[in-house]
Amino acid sequence: MAAPAQTRRTLINLRVAPQDRDLIDRAAAALGKNRSEFMMDASRQAAEDALLDRNLLHLDARAFGAFLAALDAPPAPNEALRRLMTTPAPWDK
């Protein structure tokens, strides 16, 4: 039986002001995480957001027109939408 593959990790050193470190530590503690876990989660999320915000659609004029029409069109009526629109908001209850 083969041994499980080991994931290699890389050390990242970061210099921060003491007040920033303290802020990070307080936030990490509030979420029940250590500093490394908190910073890794926050960094990963920021990286994903930065990359997802830069998706580019290449459309010809006809496809772009259809895309805009779909965005501008009202949603087709359906039971789930009707329920959503008739359910009182939690803060209105």
Automatic annotation (TrEMBL):
Keyword terms, alphabetized: DNA-binding, Repressor, Toxin-antitoxin system, Transcription, Transcription regulation
Pfam family for this entry, one: TacA1
Secretion signal span: none
InterPro entries with a match to the protein in the record: Ribbon_hlx_hlx, TacA_1-like
Record-stated family: Belongs to the TacA antitoxin family.
Protein name: Uncharacterized protein (DUF1778 family)
UniProt lineage: Bacteria, Pseudomonadati, Pseudomonadota, Alphaproteobacteria, Hyphomicrobiales
